[in-house]
Amino acid sequence: MSVFSGMSRPMKAAGVALIGVAIIAAVIGGISALGGGNGSNEAGPSGTPTQPGSSSAPPSTSSSATPPSTSTSASSSSPVPPSPSSPAPGQPTSAAPGQPGGDQQASNKWVTVRVFNNSTIKGLADRAAEDFRGSGWNVNEVSNYSQGIIPTTTAFYRPGTDEEAAAKQLAQEFGIKAEPRFEGIQSASPGVIVIVTKEYQAGHKGS
Predict the structure, then answer these.
(1) pTM for the whole thing?
(2) How far apart are CA 158 and CA 156, in angstroms?
(3) Residue 145's closest CA among 179, 117, 172?
(4) What is the DSSP string of 102-136?
(5) Could you say which residues of the chain have pLDDT below 50?
């Protein structure tokens, strides 16, 4: 038996229309509900546009600042060792070449020294040679010089060679003169040439 039984035709028509309106309202409500859910999923954070591939999570602050390397700080504050060429504190420095100093004076004494007697005193050159050797000088020849008269005992050297420093040191040590070689001995063998005259005092050393 139908729900419209017993109703007049106008009432039946009105009932059908109400049922149709109700069905349409239900359909529209369902569509609106579905549309509202999709829209909420597409919307970004309030007022912030969503970029493709971007994350809504806040950026990590742990990677934004890198702590300074402790090894760099340690190396910059560590003391720098002294250069090997620099003398250690409290140690004497060696003398520069050509300057007075223990090492330089010792090296001067390795220069060859030859001693010649220019006097009538027999053995004077031998005594002078012994004096020089006793002080560490490298005397390798003792002889006579008879090519002329030398005014005073002198150590002769070739200028600009190691003989110069050696001759001056020997002269200062024994109180004699030091001069460049003269023409008569210019071509003689290398080394300091000491020509001893009569005023030389055996065993005497200058101050």
Answers:
(1) 0.51
(2) 7
(3) 117
(4) HHHHHHHTTSEEEEEE-SSSTTHHHHHHHHHHHTT
(5) 4, 37, 39-76, 82-100
